[in-house]
Amino acid sequence: MADRIWSDAEDDREYERMCEIEERWDTAPAVLAAIGGAPGASALHVNVQGSSWLPALSRWAGREGGVAVAALSDDLETIDWVPAATAATVRRFGLDNVVHLSDEEAETHEGFDLVVCYRVLYGVGKEEGDRVLNRALRCVRPGGWFCVVEFDYRTWRFAPSSEPLERLNSLIQRYAEPAYEMDFTAGRLPGLFRDRGLALRMHADCAALQPGTLLQDKPYTAAAAGSGISDPVRDALGGDIVDGIRSRAERDAFDPGRWTLSPAIVTAFARTAARPAGGE
Amino acid sequence: METIEQTPEFLALIEADDAAESGDFDAIDERFATRLAEILARIGSGAGKRVLVVDHLDRFQLRTLSRWVGPEGGVELTVGPAGEPEEVDQALSDAPSANCRIVERASAPAGGYDLLVASRTLYWDASGSPERARHLDWLGSRLRPGGAAILVEFDFAGWQFLPAAPALEALNRMVYDAFGYQFSAAESLPEALGSIGVGCSLEATTTVLPAESGLGRRILSRARAFVSTGGFPPETAELIAEAERELADPDRWVLHPTVVFGWGTSGS
User: Looking at residue A3, what is its pLDDT?
Assistant: First the structure.
C-alpha cells in the first residue's frame, strides 16, 4: 500500500499488516446475508480499520446505493486518519460507491439503512462507548439495521502453542483493561443492545492465520518498553520480568512454522424500531 | 486436581444429557460441515476417491464427504484410538448412504486411501505420548502417496461467555481437570500433520449461541454428573447454583470452542 495514512511509517506498516489479516478474516458477507440484500441501500461505516467490511458493504449497496464512512469521534487523530484510510481502501479495491463524510454530514443524513460500528468500543471506556454508539444509532433510519463488530481477544492462541506469547497477551489484557478502560472482550455487546431496546442477533467467526502475520508478533512488540499498552504491566511486575518473558517469546513471535488462531470476531446486529418510540 | 474416573453411572448421566441436547448442535454441525466442504473443494475433485473416516463425524460432515466422492467413490468409517464401535454405527445410521460403510480397523488397508479424515482423535492423548504416536503412525500408514489428510481438533480456550461468567468458567476448569483430555489439541495439528508426512494448512472457525443453549448447559450437566457420582465434593453445588444464575441471564451468549481443521497433501 503506497498510500500514507499515518505520519509515522511504522504505523503505516502496521496498518498494512492489519489489512492483510482482515482480508482473510472477513465476517461481513455472512452478516450481510443474514440482514438481507438491499440494492440501492445506504450504509454508514463508523470508524475504519483495514478492508474487512467496506468491499462487502459496497457490493451490498450496489451501484444504485452508497456507503459512507465517518469517524463519529472527537479525537483529533481519529478525525485525521479515518478519511485517509477510507481513501486508501477505496483505491485498493476500486470501490466506486464509497465516500468519506464528516461527522456533521453523517449525522444530518436522512438516515442510513444500515450503520456498522467497527471496533469503536475496544479502546474506550463505558461512557465514551455509550456516546459513540448513541451517535451511531441516531444515524440509522427507523426500521434500519444497527450492527456492532468487536474482537474477543480471549480466544487468541497459537499453533503450536507458545507459553511466553500467551503469557504476554494475558498480562497485557489483565493490566491494560483497568488502566486504560479497555475491553479486550466482546462481552459488552449483549448489554449494550438490551439497554437500547434492541433485540440482537449474534454472529461469530475466527480464522487461522498463517505464520508471519501481525498477530503472531504483536504480543512481543506490544510488550516492548515504551509501547504504552504494556506500561501498566511493567508498572505492576517490573520491567525486568516483562523483558524476561519477551526474551523467551522472541523466537516464537517470528517462528515461520507457527500459526495464529485469531481472536473471535463477534458481530451483534438488530433491526431498529420502525419509528422512534413515541414518535408520529 | 487429578483426573476423575468416569464410572458407568457417570457416563450414563452425561449420555442422557447429550441425547436431550443433541438438536441444539445441529446448526453448529451444519456450519462446520460447510467449512469442511470448502477445504474439500481446495483439495480438488473427490469423484471416485476412497476416504477413511476415523471415529465418528456428525451426519452433516459425513454427507459432505459422501457427496464429494460421488457414487463411484467410497467413504469407510472405522473406530479411532479411544472411540466406541457403537458411535461409528450411530454416525452411519444418522446419515446412511450407498457409498458409506463401516470397516474393521484391521481391515483398513495400508496405503489404501486418497483422503483420511480424523475428527478429535488427538484429544485423548498428550502430545508426545506413545499412544498418540502409535495412532498417528497407523493413520499415516493408511494414506496412499500423494493422498490428503484432514485432522479436526478443538481449542477449548475459545469456549467463552459474553459477558464473562466467572462461575461457569470456574466449573469448566474443574470439568477439564476431571476429564484430563487434551483441551488444546488443536495447537498440535502442525506437528501431527508433519509426523504423517502431510503439509500443513489450518482453517479455524467458531460460532456464538445463547448461553442457555446446549453449549452453555453442557458445563452444568457435566458438573452435576460429577457431583452426583461423587467425583466433585458436595459443596460444588454452590458454584453450580451460581453458574445456573449466570446461564439464565437472557443477555448472556457463549462462543463455541475454536474448531480447527488441519489439512494438507502428502508427497507423492
Answer: 61
Q: Is pLDDT larger for residue B7 or for residue A187?
A: A187
Pick from A159, A189, A194: CB nearest B162? A189
**Rounded Cα–Cα distance for residues A238 and A222 (Å):** 16
Q: Give the E-state strand segments of A85-174 in sequence order.
A: 98-100, 112-118, 140-152, 157-159
Question: Considering Cα of A175, then A177, then A182, then A184, what sign does the dihedral take?
Answer: positive
Are B260 and A261 an interchain contact pair (Cβ–Cβ within 8 Å)?
yes
Distances (CA, A) of A61 to A24, A26, A113, B70: 22, 17, 10, 39
**Which value does ipTM take for this structure?**
0.92
Cell 452478516 belongs to which residue? Answer: A31
- Contact (CB, 8 A) for A27 and A53: no
- Provide the β-strand partners of residue A149: A118, A267
* Residue A81 phi, psi (nearest 5): -90, -20
- Write out the three cell numbers for B120: 478429535
Q: Between A155, A208, A266, which is nearest B157 by CB?
A: A155
Other CB atoms within 10 Å distance of the CB of residue B86? 10
- Residues present in chain A in total: 280
Per-residue pLDDT of B20-59, as tens digits, reads 776 777 878 888 899 999 999 999 999 999 999 998 778 8
Per the CB < 8 A criterion, the answer to whether A140 and A111 are in contact is yes
**What are B173-232's pLDDT values in tens digits?**
999 999 888 999 999 999 999 999 999 999 999 999 999 998 899 999 999 999 988 889
User: Which pLDDT belongs to residue B230?
Assistant: 87
Residue A150: helix, strand or coil by DSSP? Answer: strand
Task: Give chain B's mean pLDDT.
Answer: 91
Which cell goes with A80? 485525521
Among the listed residues B244, B162, B238, the one whose alpha carbon sits nearest the alpha carbon of residue A187? B162
Give the three-state DSSP class for A140: strand
DSSP labels, A66-77? EEEEE-----HH
Q: String of b and e for B222-239 (b: at least 16 CB within 10 Å)?
A: bbbbbbebebbeeebeeb
Any CB–CB contact under 8 A between B186 and chain A?
yes
Q: At what angle do helices A9-23 and A214-222 cross, to 10 degrees?
A: 140
Quote the pLDDT of residue A26. 76
Measured between beta carbons, which residues in chain B are less than 8 angstroms from residue A203?
207-208
